[in-house]
Write a structure and sequence with these properties.
alpha/beta; 58% helix; Rossmann fold; 9 helices; single chain; binds thymidine-5'-diphosphate; 13% strand
Length: 207
C-alpha cells in the first residue's frame, strides 16, 4: 500500500508520518518512509538545488517542475516500486500532488501539462491513499522558524501559499475515494490517533 502525506508548509505532516510509521511497524508491517524531493542519492542532490541549499539559484517554475519530477522518477524506480513489490507499506512525505499544488495552483503552470509530466515520471504509479493535512497558509508559515525555511517559504508570498492550500483542497475534492483530509490545527496526538484509524481501516479493506 502506498500512502502520500500532503499539505502546505508547516502542516506537521512529517511528524504525523513518523507517528504512523511507528504504529504500522508495531502492527508488524514493513514500512518504507521516503521524502520528496530526495530519498535517493540522486534525489538528495536535486533537493539541494531545488531548496536553495547551495546558495540562491534562480529557477523558473518549469525548471522546478522538471527537477521535482526527476527526483520523483528516481525515487519511484529505485525505492517505491521495489518496496511495494515486496509487500511493504510505503509512506511518502509529499508526492505528485505537491507538484500540482505548488507549480500548478501556486506558480500557475497548466495542470494538464503537469499531469502529463507526472505520469511520465512515475510511470503511472499513484498513491492508494493521500492524507491531506489542511491548515491556513499563514498558520503553516508561522510554524516554521527562520533557519528551517526553504526557498519556497522564504521567496514566495502569502498569496502563493494560499493558492497552494486551496489547490490541495481542490485536488482532495476531485478524488474523495483516495484522499482523506485532516485538520492540521488539532493536537498532534489526537491527529495521530485519527490518522492511524483511517489507515488501519484502509488496510483492512484491502486484505
Ligand atoms: P521540505 O523542506 O521538504 O518541506 P516540507 O517539510 O514542508 O515538505 O521542502 C519541500 C518544498 O518543496 C516545499 O516547500 C514544497 C515544495 N515542493 C514543490 O514545490 N513541488 C513538489 O513537487 C514537491 C515534492 C515539493
Amino acid at each position: 500500500m502506498f500512502i502520500a502525506f500532503e499539505g502546505p508548509d508547516g502542516s506537521g505532516k512529517s511528524t504525523q508520518l513518523a507517528h504512523l510509521a511507528e504504529h504500522l511497524r508495531n502492527a508488524g508491517h514493513e514500512v518504507v518512509a521516503v521524502r520528496e524531493p530526495g530519498g535517493t542519492p540522486a534525489g538528495e542532490l536535486i533537493r539541494a538545488i531545488l531548496l536553495g541549499e547551495g546558495g540562491d539559484i534562480a529557477l523558473d517554475p518549469r525548471a522546478d517542475a522538471l527537477l521535482f519530477n526527476a527526483s520523483r522518477a528516481q525515487l519511484v524506480a529505485e525505492v517505491i516500486r521495489p518496496a511495494l513489490a515486496r509487500g511493504a507499506v510505503v509512506l511518502a512525505d509529499r508526492f505528485a500532488a505537491s507538484t500540482l499544488a505548488y507549480q500548478g495552483y501556486g506558480s500557475g503552470l497548466p495542470l494538464v501539462e503537469l499531469r502529463a509530466m507526472i505520469a511520465f515520471a512515475t510511470g503511472g504509479l499513484t498513491p492508494d491513499l493521500t492524507l491531506l493535512f489542511d491548515l491556513p497558509a499563514d498558520a503553516g508559515l508561522a510554524r516554521k522558524s527562520g533557519d528551517g525555511r526553504t526557498r519556497f517559504e522564504e521567496g514566495f508570498d502569502t498569496a502563493f501559499h494560499e493558492r497552494v492550500a486551496a489547490g490541495f483542497r481542490a485536488l482532495a475534492a476531485e478524488e474523495p475515494d483516495h484522499w482523506h483530509t485532516f485538520n492540521a490545527g488539532e493536537a498532534p496526538e489526537r491527529l495521530a490517533h485519527e490518522v492511524a484509524g483511517v489507515v488501519d481501516a484502509a488496510l483492512t479493506r484491502r486484505s
